[in-house]
C-alpha cells in the first residue's frame, strides 16, 4: 500500500502500533516469564501513538501542508504484526525481533518522508524510530537467556 | 430433456452470478471502506440562524449546499431577510451591556470551554470542512487547528487587553489609558476557509466584550453552524454570538445597520473595496482582507528537493483556493550565464511539472488523496476560461489539468487536475490577475532586481516567498518587497494566530489586520488624566 499523505502515514502508524501493543499483551499472557518486558513494550507502543498524534494534531496547519509527502510503500517493509503460530519462547522472540527491526526501518523512513513539511511529526517519528533499538536490545537479551 | 438442462444451466448460472455479484459488492465496499473516512453528515441538514441564543428558522429562500466531490446535497441554507439580520443586531445590542461588564478573565473562560469542546469534536469539525468545501482531510485538520489557535490566543485577553499608566505626569496627577469594547460587530466569512477565517476575528471580539454576528459563506456554511453550537454549549449568554446566513441582502443590511459598529471581511478585492467604501460612508470600522497574486522566487542556490514539495503545497494545496497560494513561480537567473540559466530553468520546471503531474486528486476524505475539487462547478468553469485565456495570450500549457484523472469514481463537475503554464509574462491576464485555483504560471527573471520589479508592479500585496540559501538575498528580499506576508523557504507564509495576518496594496483595505492585531480593531482607547483634591 502506498502512503502519500501525512494522514495516511498517521493512520498506518497508529494501527500498526496499536496492533503491536495488543500482540505484546497477548504474549504477556501466553509467556508469563517475559510478562514484564512484553507489557512495558505494549505500554511504550501505546505512548508512541499518543506522541505522534499529539505532534500531528497540534502542529499541523496550513502553513506546513501535509498532503505532499514523499511516497512510502508499506510493502517494502514486510511488517507482520501477528501472533506467531509457534508459542515456543525462542521462536516468538525471533519473530518479534524481526518485526521490531522492520518497524524501525519504516518509522525512520516515514520521518524522512515527512521532514520537509511537518518537522514536528518527523522529529517525533525519528525519536521513536531511534528508541526502537532499545526494544530490540531488550528482546535480544531475553533471547540469549532462553534455553529452548 | 434439453429444456431441463437449459433450466439447470440458467438456475446454476444465476446462483453463480448472484454469488459473483455479492462477492464483487463485498470487495467494492471493502475497498471503499478502506479508503474513505466516515462522513459525519449523514442526511441533508436544514440550517437555521442562531439569534439571541435560539436556533431560528429563516423565512428566506433555501439554497442547496453541495459536496463538491460527490455533488450530493448535504445541507440547505437560507437566504435570510433584512428583518432577521435586524433581529440579530437587536439581540446582540441587548446582550452587550451585561457582556462588557463581565470581567475579562471570566469572558476568557467561555473561550477555554469553547476550545475544549472544539478539541473534543476536532475530527468531526475537520471532516465537515472536507465535505462542504472539498479540501483534503490533512488540510481540514490544519484549518481546524488554525481556528482553535485563535480561540487559544483570544483566551489570553486579560493580559492582551491591558492598558498602561504613567504616574506623576505633574505633581499629584496620573494618566492612564485602557481599552473599551465598542458594541456589535459583523463578520463576513469567505468560502475557502469556512471554519477558520471567522475565528480570526470572533473570539477576540467577544473576549474584549463585544457581541458578534457572523455571516458565513452560503457556499459552505455548515462549519459556522457547528461553531455556534459549540458557543452555545460553552454557555455564552444569549446574543453574544450570533449567526445569520445569507447573501448580498444580509451583507447590505449589515453595512447599512446603524447599530453595527464595524465589519471584518475576507473575500475578493471588488467586494472588499465596496465594503470598505460603504463602511466609510456609514462610519463603521472595517478590516477587508482581499485577493492576491503571490510570487514565489526560486534562486539558483535553492535546495531543490526541499523546494519542490513546498511549491506543490503552495500552488496546489487547498486546490489553489487560498489568498496565500503561490500563483507565479519566478525562476531567477541571478549570477548565471545565459546557458546556465536556461539549464537551471529547465531543471526547475521539469521537477515541478513532474511532481505536480503525480498529485492524486479526488475526494478529500480519502487519505490517499492529495488535492480535492474546486468548491463548485462554477469555479471550475471559471478556471477553464482562464486556461483558454492563457493559451490565447501565448503562454505554453505544459501540464493540462483539464484531462481529469481521479482517485475514485466521482463526478468530474468540480474537479480540475494541477495545471501549469510556462512562458508566462507579468502583463498576461494569467500572470497578473488572481485565478484562485490549481493553475501555476512559471516566469523567468534574468536577475533578482527584475524579479522584485515584477512583484512590485503587481497590484496585489498579500504574500511572496523566496527560496534560497543566500542570507544576503533573503535579507534584501524581506527588506525591499512591498508585501504583507513574506516567506523564506516557506511556500505558504500564513501568520500564526499570535501575529497579524498582514496584507498590502489591493489585497487589503483598512489599517488593522486580522488575528492578534484585531484587538485594536475591536476596542477603542480611553485616556484618563486624574488628580484628587
Produce the secondary structure layout.
The complex is a heterodimer of chains A (148) and B (533).
Chain A: E1 2-3, H1 6-30, H2 35-59, E2 72-73, H3 89-114, H4 119-145
Antiparallel strand pairs in A: 1-2
Helix pairs in contact in A: 1-2, 2-4, 3-4
Chain B: H1 2-35, E1 45-46, E2 49-51, E3 54-56, E4 62-66, E5 73-78, H2 82-101, H3 104-120, H4 122-133, H5 137-154, H6 157-160, E6 164-170, E7 173-181, E8 184-188, H7 202-207, E9 211-215, H8 222-234, E10 241-243, H9 248-256, E11 260-266, H10 269-282, E12 285-289, E13 294-298, H11 304-316, E14 326-332, H12 338-357, H13 377-392, E15 396-399, E16 419-422, H14 429-432, E17 439-445, H15 448-457, E18 460-461, E19 463-467, H16 471-480, E20 485-488, E21 500-501, E22 504-505, E23 508-509, E24 514-515, H17 518-521, E25 523-531
Parallel strand pairs in B: 1-5, 8-9, 8-11, 9-10, 11-12, 13-14, 13-19, 14-17, 16-17, 19-20
Antiparallel strand pairs in B: 2-3, 4-5, 6-7, 7-25, 12-23, 15-16, 18-22, 21-24
Helix pairs in contact in B: 3-5, 3-8, 4-5, 11-12
Q: Your description of this structure?
A:
The complex is a heterodimer of chains A (about 150) and B (about 525). Chain A has about 150 residues and is an all-alpha fold. Chain A has four helices and two strands, in the order E-H-H-E-H-H. Chain A has a two-stranded antiparallel ribbon. The mean pLDDT of chain A is about 90. Chain B is of the alpha/beta class and about 525 residues long. Helix content of chain B is about 40%, strand content about 20%. Chain B has 17 helices and 25 strands. Chain B has a seven-stranded mixed β-sheet, with helices on both faces. A six-stranded mixed β-sheet of chain B has the order 10-9-8-11-12-23, with helices on both faces. In chain B, helix 3 packs antiparallel against helix 5 (about 135-155), helix 4 packs across helix 5 (about 135-155) and helix 11 packs across helix 12 (about 340-355). The longest helix of chain B is centred in the N-terminal third of the chain and has 34 residues, at about 1-35. The radius of gyration of chain B is 26 Å and the shape is globular. The termini of chain B are far apart. Mean pLDDT of chain B is about 95; it is low at about 1-35.
Amino acid at each position: 500500500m502506498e502512503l502519500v499523505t501525512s494522514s495516511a502515514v498517521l493512520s498506518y502508524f497508529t494501527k500498526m502500533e496499536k496492533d503491536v501493543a495488543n500482540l505484546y499483551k497477548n504474549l504477556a499472557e501466553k509467556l508469563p516469564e517475559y510478562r514484564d518486558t512484553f507489557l512495558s513494550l505494549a505500554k511504550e507502543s501505546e505512548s508512541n501513538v499518543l506522541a505522534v498524534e499529539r505532534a500531528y494534531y497540534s502542529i499541523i496547519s496550513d502553513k506546513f501542508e501535509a498532503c505532499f509527502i514523499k511516497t512510502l510503500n508499506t510493502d517494502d517493509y514486510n511488517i507482520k504484526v501477528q501472533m506467531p503460530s509457534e508459542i515456543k519462547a525462542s521462536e516468538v522472540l525471533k519473530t518479534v525481533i524481526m518485526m521490531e527491526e522492520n518497524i524501525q526501518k519504516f518509522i525512520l523512513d516515514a520521518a524522512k518522508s515527512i521532514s520537509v513539511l511537518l518537522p514536528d511529526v518527523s522529529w517525533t517519528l525519528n525519536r521513536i524510530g531511534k528508541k526502537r533499538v532499545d526494544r530490540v536490545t531488550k528482546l535480544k537479551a531475553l533471547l540469549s537467556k532462553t534455553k529452548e | 430433456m434439453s429444456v431441463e438442462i437449459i433450466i439447470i444451466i440458467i438456475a446454476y448460472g444465476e446462483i453463480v452470478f448472484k454469488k459473483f455479484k455479492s462477492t464483487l459488492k463485498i470487495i467494492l465496499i471493502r475497498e471503499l471502506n478502506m479508503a474513505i473516512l466516515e462522513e459525519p453528515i449523514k442526511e441533508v441538514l436544514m440550517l437555521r440562524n442562531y439569534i439571541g441564543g435560539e436556533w431560528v428558522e429563516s423565512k428566506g429562500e433555501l439554497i442547496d449546499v453541495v459536496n463538491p466531490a460527490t455533488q450530493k446535497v448535504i445541507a440547505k441554507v437560507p437566504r435570510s431577510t433584512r428583518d432577521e439580520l435586524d433581529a440579530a443586531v437587536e439581540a446582540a445590542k441587548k446582550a452587550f451591556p451585561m457582556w462588557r461588564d463581565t470581567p475579562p478573565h471570566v469572558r476568557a473562560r467561555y473561550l477555554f470551554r469553547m476550545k475544549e469542546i472544539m478539541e473534543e469534536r476536532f475530527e468531526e469539525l475537520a471532516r465537515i470542512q472536507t465535505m462542504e468545501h472539498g479540501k483534503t482531510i490533512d488540510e481540514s485538520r490544519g484549518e481546524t487547528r488554525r481556528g482553535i489557535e485563535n480561540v487559544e490566543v483570544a483566551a489570553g485577553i486579560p493580559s492582551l487587553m491591558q492598558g498602561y499608566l504613567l504616574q506623576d505626569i505633574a505633581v499629584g496627577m496620573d494618566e492612564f489609558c485602557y481599552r473599551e469594547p465598542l458594541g456589535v460587530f459583523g463578520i463576513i466569512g469567505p468560502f475557502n476557509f469556512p471554519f477558520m477565517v471567522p475565528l480570526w476575528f470572533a473570539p477576540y471580539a467577544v473576549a474584549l466584550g463585544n457581541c458578534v454576528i457572523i455571516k458565513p459563506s452560503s457556499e459552505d456554511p455548515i462549519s459556522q453552524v457547528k461553531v455556534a453550537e459549540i458557543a452555545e454549549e460553552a454557555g455564552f449568554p444569549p446574543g453574544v454570538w450570533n449567526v445569520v446566513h445569507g447573501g448580498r441582502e444580509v451583507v447590505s443590511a449589515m453595512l447599512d445597520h446603524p447599530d453595527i459598529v464595524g465589519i471584518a471581511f475576507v473575500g475578493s478585492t471588488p467586494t472588499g473595496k465596496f465594503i470598505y467604501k460603504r463602511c466609510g460612508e456609514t462610519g463603521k470600522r472595517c478590516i477587508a482582507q482581499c485577493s492576491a497574486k503571490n510570487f514565489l522566487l526560486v534562486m539558483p542556490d535553492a535546495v531543490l528537493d526541499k523546494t519542490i514539495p513546498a511549491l506543490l503545497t503552495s500552488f496546489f494545496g487547498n486546490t489553489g483556493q487560498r489568498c496565500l497560494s503561490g500563483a507565479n513561480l519566478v525562476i531567477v537567473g541571478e549570477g548565471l550565464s545565459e546557458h546556465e540559466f536556461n539549464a537551471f530553468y529547465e531543471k526547475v520546471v521539469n521537477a515541478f511539472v513532474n511532481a505536480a503531474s503525480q498529485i492524486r486528486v479526488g475526494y478529500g476524505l480519502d487519505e490517499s488523496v492529495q488535492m480535492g475539487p474546486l468548491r463548485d462547478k462554477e469555479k471550475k468553469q471559471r478556471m477553464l476560461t482562464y486556461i483558454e485565456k492563457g493559451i490565447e495570450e501565448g503562454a505554453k500549457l505544459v501540464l493540462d489539468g483539464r484531462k481529469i484523472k481521479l482517485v475514485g469514481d466521482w463526478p468530474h463537475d468540480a474537479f480540475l487536475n494541477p495545471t501549469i503554464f510556462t512562458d508566462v509574462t507579468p502583463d498576461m491576464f494569467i500572470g497578473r490577475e488572481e485565478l484562485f485555483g490549481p493553475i501555476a504560471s512559471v516566469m523567468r527573471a534574468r536577475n533578482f532586481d527584475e524579479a522584485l520589479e515584477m512583484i512590485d508592479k503587481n497590484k496585489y500585496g498579500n504574500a511572496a516567498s523566496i527560496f534560497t540559501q543566500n542570507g544576503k538575498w533573503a535579507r534584501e528580499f524581506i527588506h525591499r518587497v512591498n508585501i504583507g506576508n513574506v516567506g523564506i523557504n516557506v511556500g505558504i507564509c500564513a501568520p500564526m494566530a499570535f501575529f497579524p495576518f498582514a496584507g498590502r496594496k489591493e489585497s487589503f483595505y483598512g489599517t488593522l489586520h486580522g488575528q492578534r492585531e484585531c484587538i485594536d480593531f475591536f476596542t477603542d482607547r480611553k485616556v484618563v488624566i486624574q488628580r484628587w483634591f
